[in-house]
Design brief:
Structural class: mainly alpha
Distance between the termini: 36 Å
Radius of gyration: 20 Å
Order of helices and strands: HHHHHHHHEEHHHHHHH
Strand order of the largest sheet: 1-2
Shape: globular
Strand content: under 5%
Number of helices: 15
Largest sheet: 2 strands, antiparallel
Number of strands: 2
């Protein structure tokens, strides 16, 4: 980046920081109100399902299950937050998650399927698979200028199709017991599942990165005005590729943790992961049109579909209605985002 570009970038950042206090206060008020509404909706869901079956829904075992399920979705949603912040979309995460888990299982089985050595190699394999598909999506979006919706729909089909080719459509087992007992069933202080701890670490890193690093600021700048970011000296194409690689890598991590939890690849169990992640991110306050993102909101938004599904299962609602509920939540999330934009633009 040349000195003139750095100077222009600094000027743009300074202009944003020195925006009129009234505008910033109004925008902050809209965000805070949205967060309160989201918390209220979450509380209502907990109260309703808790009242319907308090022994099962509010039991310690089920609460751990809720947090563990939310943790897997949260890892994927964190990557989706960065992508959506650029006004992009990533529909491939469910397929990438499955493919990463399949290849990781095959590699660990080839190593004998025992010990921490196989687990570490399996983790590296899963992360690498996710990063590869993320880089493909990023290149298609940034270099080939294919709309993110189409590009990631393509990588969804390729990743999920390859997973089925490798497995002949059947789930793989043979996951090392070290992985399932140590991470899948293991708990910190015999209380907090390790999967939840890992998700918390990823989330804290993402929150710090988004708000306090150049990577996060560049991400938001691209979402606000891609051409303006380019003129400010930001390497937009490179940044977009990094963001999609991040989303793919986190999907790979989620795929590995899914193996740890279920000891199988669950090929058919992730068809709505992308919808749930997008719903959580947008419902949490990240603008579907880019330029604004909040990891804290994503955390809250993740629990909406998670508790919906968990509550439906405990209440005996047929699984078909769970997909209906996820679709409705997605539509509501987009509508709320539009209301936020209107309020902000007034």
């Amino acid at each position: 980046m040349t000195d003139s570009m750095k100077t222009q970038e600094a000027a743009n950042i300074s202009a944003l920081e020195n925006a009129p206090a009234g505008w910033r206060a109004r925008l902050r008020g809209v965000r805070q109100a949205s967060m309160l509404y989201l918390l209220a909706a979450l509380a209502i869901l907990i109260i309703v399902f808790g009242a319907m079956n308090p022994g099962a829904f509010l039991g310690a075992y089920n609460l751990r299950e809720v947090f563990t399920e939310a943790a897997l979705l949260l890892i994927v949603a964190v990557g989706a937050t960065f992508v959506i912040a650029t006004s992009g979309i990533d529909l491939s995460v469910g397929g990438v998650l499955v493919f990463s888990g399949v290849i990781s299982t095959e590699v660990m089985s080839a190593m004998g399927g025992k010990g921490w050595g196989a687990v570490v190699v399996g983790l590296a394999t899963s992360l690498a698979c996710g990063a590869i598909f993320g880089s493909i999506s990023g290149l298609l979006v940034a270099k080939a200028h294919i709309p993110p919706l189409i590009a990631t729909l393509g990588t969804l089909g390729v990743s999920l199709g390859l997973a089925q080719v490798v497995t002949n459509g059947a789930d793989l087992s043979g996951v090392p017991e070290t992985l399932t007992s140590g991470i899948g069933l293991g708990q910190l202080f015999s209380t907090i599942p390790w999967i939840v701890v890992i998700a918390a670490v990823v989330t804290v890193w993402a929150a710090i990165s988004l708000r306090s690093t150049r990577f996060g600021q560049y991400t938001l700048a691209i979402g606000s005005n891609k051409e303006g970011a380019r003129r400010a000296g930001i390497q937009v194409d490179r940044q977009l590729i990094k963001i999609y690689v991040l989303a793919g890598t986190l999907a790979g991590l989620a795929g590995f943790l899914n193996l740890a939890r279920f000891a199988t690849t669950s090929i058919a169990g992730h068809s709505t992961d992308n919808l749930q992640a997008i719903s959580a991110v947008v419902l949490g306050g990240t603008s579907l049109f880019g330029g604004w993102a909040t990891i804290a909101g994503t955390v809250i938004g993740v629990f909406i579909p998670t508790i919906l599904q968990n509550g439906f299962v405990i209440s005996g609602v047929p699984p078909f209605w769970q997909q209906v509920a996820v679709g409705v939540v997605l539509v509501i999330a987009v509508y709320i985002d539009q209301l936020r934009r209107r309020s902000r633009d007034k």
